[in-house]
Amino acid sequence: MSVYLLLILIGLPLAGFLLARRQAVAMVGGGSSLHSLPDFHGAYVAAWTGIPATLLVVLWIALQGPVLDQAVFASLPDDFRDAVANQSLVIAEIHSVADGRIFGEPAPEVRAAAERLQTWRSMASWSMVAVAAAAALAGLVVTRSRLAPAFRARHRVEDVLSGLMVVCSVIAVLTTLGILLSLVFESIRFFARVPWYEFLFGLNWEPQIAIRSDQVAGLGSFGAVPVFLGTVVIAVIAMLVATPIGLLSAIYLTEYASPRFRAVAKPSLEILAGIPTVVYGFFAVLTVAPALRIAGAWIGLDVAPNSALAAGSVMGLMIIPFISSLSDDALAAVPQAMRDGSAALGATKVRDHREGAAAGSASRDHGRRPAGGQPGDRRDHDRGDGRRPDRQDDPEPVRLGHHRDRADRHPADRRHRVRQPQDPGRLRPRHGAVHQHALPERGGAADRPEISREI
Amino acid sequence: MTDTSPQIASAQLGTSAPGTQSGEPPRFDWNAPEMRRGFAARHRANTRLQIYGLSAIALAVLLIAILVGSLVATGYQSFVQTHVTFEVFVDPAKVDAADPAKGNFRLIVRDSFAAQFPDVTNPRDLRSLTDVMTADAPFIVRDRVVADPSLIGQRVEVTMPVSDAFDQLQKGVTPRDVPETQRKVNDKQIAWFDTLAERGQITVPFNTALFLSADSRFPELAGLAGAIVGSFYALLVCFLISFPVGIAAAVYLEEFARKGRWSDILEVNINNLAAVPSVVFGLLGLAVFLGFFGLPRSTPLVGGMVLALMTLPTIIIATRSALKAVPPSIREAALGVGASKHQVVLHHVLPLAMPGILTGTIIGMAQALGETAPLLLIGMNAFITSPPGGILESATALPTQIFIWADSPERGFVSRTSAAILVLIGFLIAMNLVAVILRKRFERRW
Lengths: 455, 446
Hints:
Strand order of the largest sheet of chain B: 2-1-3
CATH topology of the largest domain in chain B: MetI-like fold
Number of helices of chain A: 16
Shape of chain A: flat
Oligomer: heterodimer
C-alpha cells in the first residue's frame, strides 16, 4: 500500500511535470511565444498534482485512528457498551486483539469488534489510496487543461511557493498554540482534582500517593511549595557560582585579553554550553555529590547525596557561558567613546568598569540594546578569528560584522539572543518578548562627575 | 603649552572636583606623593581585576577539565571488555539436531565450563563457578549452534564476556584486598579467575559490543547500537522536517513578508519558542502527537517531530541572519536583469546563504542530539534490547540511554554511562567540527 502511496505522491507529480513541460514546449511551435518557461508549466501541474493529495493523505492518517476508534466503540452492542466503565481501556484492548497481541480471554464482543476494526482499517487505507489518486489525477487533468502560451505559469508557481512558505512560518504559531492549549487543558484537568490553593501553597509534595482515587491522602499531597523552593534554591546557588566566574571572565576577555587569548579562551568556555544536560546530571551524581559529601564530612556536616548544593553548583557551571557572553555583549555595547573618554581623564580600566561600563551594562542586561549600534559596537570584533578591527574606522559594522556574527555564534549565544532580538541594523518596532526600556543616559552628565572626582 | 594643559583640565573640572577653592584655579601637582599613591592604588586595582578575570577563566577551564577528566577516568574502562575463552562440548544428548534452539544449553555451558576445573564437584561451588561467565552464556552458545547446526557433537572454542563483577575485578575497580564479605566475588571465585588468567584464557580486547549490541540488563553485554540507531532515525526525521520548514519560514519572514502586525506576531512567536524549555516541547508531543493523533509511543518518528519543533527556531534564526548577510547588491543585480522576486531568492540569495544556513542547522541538530527531557516525556527511555528497524519501532536515543544507565544500580553501568557520554560528546564534537569547517571553507565575507 505504501508503494502505491509513493507512486501517487511522487510518481504522478513527476509525470505531470514531464507531460506539462512537453506540452509547453510543443505550444511554442505555432509561432506564439510562451509567457513562462516550460519548466514553470511543469512545476505548476506538478504542484497541483502532488500538494493537495499529500495534504489529504496526511490529514487522513492523522484522523483515521480517532475516527475508527469512535466508530468501533459505537458499533459495540448497546448493553456491552453501557457496562463499560472506561472507554479507552476497551479501545486499547480491541487494538491489541486486532494487532494479534491477545492476553487472557477477551470477551466475544471485543473479538468481534477487533475483527471489525481490522477490516475497517484496511478499507480505510485503501480508500485513502483511492482518494489520494483521485485528487492527484483531478489536479493533473484540470491544471493541464489550463496550459496555454499566455498562461502565467510562473506567477501561479510563485503563488504556490509563497503559500507554502506562509504555511511553514505559521507552524511556529501553531506550536505556540499547541503548547499553550495542551498546558491549559492539562492544568484544567489537574485543578479539577486538586484545588489551586493546595497546589500553590501546600507544603507537601508526594504525587505518587494520589494514583488511586480511593486514597484520601491524595488531596494535599500536591503542594508545590517544596518544588518551587527547590528550584529557587538551585537557581540561587547556580547564580552564585556562575555570576562571578562569568562576569569576571567576560570583563577580562573584553578589556584585557589579547585577540589570540580571546580566540582560544572564548570557545573553550563555550564548550560548556554544548554539553548535554544529562551529562551534567551524571557529573553531579558521579563526582560533585561525593566530593561535597567528603567535604561536608570534614567539617562535620552530613551532606545528602542529592543535595541542592550539588545540583546548583553543576547548573552554575552549565550557565557560565551564558552569563559570560551576556555580560560580554553588555560590556561591548558600552560606547567606545566612553571608554576613550574615561581613559583620557586618567581612569584605569577598573575604575572605568566600576562606574561607567557596569552602570551602563547592568541596565542593558534587562534586554535593551542601545539603539542604532554605535560605531564602536564591539560585537564586530567577535569574528571568531579574534581579529579586532579598528572600532572607529568601521563605518557600518552592524550590517557587515554583526549579522555574520550571529550565525557564527555558538548556540548558547543564540539562545540568549533570542530573548533580545533587537537588531540594531534594522530599526523596527518589536513587541512581546522584548522589554522596551527607556535608554538610560549612559556616558552622560550622570557619569562624568564620578570619573572626574577621581582626578 | 605643556604648562597650560593641566590648568585647562583643572579649569574644566573645577566645578566638580572636590576641595578646590573658587576663584583661584587649582593646580595639580602630578608628582605629589598623594597623587603617586593614588596612581599606584589604581594600578594595583587594575592588576587585581585582571588577576580576578584570569583566575575566573582558569577556574572555568579547570572545571571543564575535571568534568571531562572524571568522565574519561571512569569511561575508558568500558572501551575494553574482559572475555573468557573455553572449549564448549555441544553434547548431542542435550541438543536435538532437528530443533537446536530448544537444547539445554544451560547445562551444556555449565558442564563445559566446569570441565576447566575438574576438582570442583560440589553443586554450590559449581553455581558460583558459572557466575564467572556472563549470565547470557547459554544464549551465546545457542545462537552459534542455531546458526551452524553442524557444531552439534563437536568441541567449539567460545569466547564470551565474563560477568560484570569479574570484569570490574580484572579492571581493578573492585579491590581484592577488602574482606570477602564486602565484595561481590568470593575468594574461591577469585582463585578460579586467576587460574583462568594464568592459563591465558582471559583476554581484554576492544569492546566491540559497546557499539554493536543494544541495551541489556547485564552491563557486560549492554551496548549503544540501539541508542545510536534510534538517535540517527530521530535526527533524520528532525532534519527532514525542520530543515525545509525552517528555511521556508525564514525566507518568507526575511524576503517576502510585508512588515506589519502579522510578521511581528510571527517573529515574536519564533523568538519566544527558542526560549521555551525543552521539556515543554515534550509535553506538547505527549499531548498532541501521542494523545490527540495517537501516534505510536517511544518511536523515533514522534521523537524526531518533537525535536524538529524544538530545532525550528534555531534554524529559522540562523537562516535569517545568513540571508541578511547576503548584500543587497546581489538582489538588486538579479532584479535588474529581470528575475522575479522568487527567482532572486531561489537562484541567488539562498545558494549564497547556504553555508550559513547549514552551519546553523548542524548546530541545531547537535543541540537536538543532546536533548533528553522531551524524549523522556514521549517514552523514548524504554528498555529495548534490539536496534529499531525503522522510525515506527520503539527505540531509545543516546541521551536517554545515558539516562537509563545512570539510573541502573550495577557497578558496570557507571563506567558504561561514562563511555556512552564520551561517545555522545564525540558525535557532538564531530558535528560542530563539520559546522566550523563549513563556515571556514564556504562562508563568504562580502
